[in-house]
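Loading example: each entry is read as two labelled lines plus one structure line.
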Amino acid sequence: MTPAELSSALRDALAAAVAAGELSLDPADVPAEVRVERPKNREHGDWATSVALQLAKKAGAPPRQVAGVLAARLAQVPGVRAADIAGPGFLNITLEAASAGRLARTVVEAGAGYGRTSALAGQRINLEFVSANPTGPIHIGGTRWAAVGDSLARLLRATGADVTCEYYFNDHGAQIDRFARSLLAAAHGEPAPEDGYGGAYIADIAAAVTAKVPDLLALPRAEQQETFRREGVELMFAEIRQSLAEFGVTFDVYFHEESLHSSGAVERAIARLRELGRVYEADGATWLRTSEFGDDKDRVVVKSDGQPAYISGDLAYYLDKRERGFDRAVIMLGADHHGYIGRMMAMCAAFGDVPGENLEILIGQLVNLLRDGKPLRMSKRAGTVVTMEDLVEAVGVDAARYALARSSVDTSIDVDLDLLVRRSNDNPVFYVQYAHARTANVGVNAAQSGVRREDAFDPALLTHETEAVLLAALAEFPAVVTRAAELREPHRVARYLEELAGRYHKWYDSCRVTPRAEEAVEDVHRTRLWLNDATRTVLAAGLDLLGVSAPERM
RNA sequence: GCGCCCGUAGCUCAGCGGAUAGAGCACCCGACUUCUAAUCGGAUGGCCGCAGGUUCGAAUCCUGCCGGGCGCGCCA
C-alpha cells in the first residue's frame, strides 16, 4: 500500500463517516487530500496523519474522538494492520508487512520510471542558469548554479515538465571591451588595465589568439583589439562549454546577448513597451516605469548617449523567451544580483505578465571558500579565482556536484578545499554511492548463490524492523521528487538519498540476501533480493537526478 | 538609511504549523571467521539569536530588535 493509496483510503473513510452521520461535518469541509506522513518516531507506526486535529473544530468534537471514528473505519481497510489514536489526536497507522512489502516489487518493475510523476505535466519551462560572462573561467559560484540548475532541470523533467536549459551569453557591452583590452595588454607584456582582468588565463588566451592569427601584432592596435575581442570571446566560450561538459552539464540553448542587439529585438521590445505606455523620455534618456510595478525607482533602458542600458537586453531576452512559447522563465541568479529582482519582476508586469508565475527568479547564496579553515578571498582581477576546473580536479565531478547541490541555495555554504582534497568520507556522496555499490554487489553475490528474484516474492516475509523502515523510505521517493521540483529545491533529493542509504546500510547489517554457506536458499532470500534491487533502483534514480554517478563497485 | 538571504549540537548543515528537534563529521566505547567495516550499534553534545504575537499546537507563520553575508548606478 502506497502513501497515495493510504491517503485515498483515509479520505474515503472520512467521507463515509460524514455520510453515516458519525461526524457532523459539512461535506465541503472534507479535504480533497488527506496528508499522511512518516512519523519521526518509529513507535508511532508506518504513517501518521493529523487530519483529526485539523478537523476537530469544524466537526465540533474533540480531536481524539474524530480520530477514533476514522480509526474504526480505517482498521477495516485491507492492508492496514492497526490504526491507533495517539497524543492530542494523531492517527498512527501500521500496515500489514505484506501490504508494505509489495512496494519492493512495484519499484523493481517500474525501474527508472519509479519516482517520475506528472505533477508538472503540460508546463513549458525555460530554465536559465550559470550564464557566466565570457571574460573568464566559471568560478565557484557559477559552479554551484551548474550543479543545482542541472539537477533542477532533471527534477522538472522527472515531474513531467517540458524543460529547455539555457545559458545567456553576455557577449555585448563594456565588459567585453575590458576583456579585449586585457588580452591586448597581456600580448604586449603590459600590465592589465586598471579596469581589466588579470590572472594566468588572460595570458593563455592572449597567446592562443596570437598563435591562431599569425601577424596579429603587426596590425594597427585598434584592429588588434577587435581581433582579441572576437577570438578571445570565442575561445573563452569554447572553454566554458568544455568545462560544463566535463561537469556533466549541457545546455539546450546558448543564447548570445549580441544577437538581441544585432537582430533588432531590443528595439522591438522597447517599442512594445512604448505601445503599452510603459516608457517615457527624460534627461535625454528613455525610462521604463518599473516603479509602477513595485520597483524602487524607474530604470533607464536607453542611455542619454543612445546606447541601450544593460536591462534592455533583459527586456528583449524575456520577451523572446515568451514568444518562443515558454509559460515560465525561470532564472537562477547569485545573491550579488538579488537587487535585480525588483526591476525584473516589474519588467515582467510591464509586459502584462504575472511576476512569480511567468517569471521566476531563484536567488542562490554565495559559496565561501575555505582553506585551512580560513576564508579565501577571491578576485578575478588578481587571478585568485577557484574555477570549476580547479574544483573538479581537486575532488572529482561527483563529489563537487554533490557537495554543491546538497544544501539549500538559500544558505551560503562553506567549501573547505583541503577537506575535499583529502577525499575523506566527510563527503556524504561517498556514503550514498557506497550504498549503491553495495546493492550491486549484493546482486552479484545473490546470483552466484542461486538466489533469483523470479523464483519467489512473498512480501509477508519482510517482517524485520529495518525492512519496514526501508520500505517506508522507498515509498516516499515520488513525493520527495515532486516536492523538490515544485519548490525548486534539488537538495531535498540529496538529503533523502542520505536517509535512504542509511536505512539500507542498517538493513544490510541485519538481513542477509544470500544465505550463509551451510544454509539453503529460501523464499525470504529471494524476497529480500527484490527489496535490495528496489533500493538500488531508487538510489540510482536519485543520484541521476543530481547528475552524480551510481557506481557498481567502489 | 532601504531591500534580500541566513542565525538550529564543537564544525558543516537538514527539518511541507505537529508528537521526545535530527544527520554527517569531530570526540568516547563497542562490532571485521564480513552477502565490501567507505559499514553498523551505543554514549556525549541544544535558551532552535532575543522579545512579543497568531494557533489546540511555533525551529517553522507575523512584528520588532541583535548579529553575519550580499546588494541598492544613465556599470555590465
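The longest strand of chain A covers residues 162-169.
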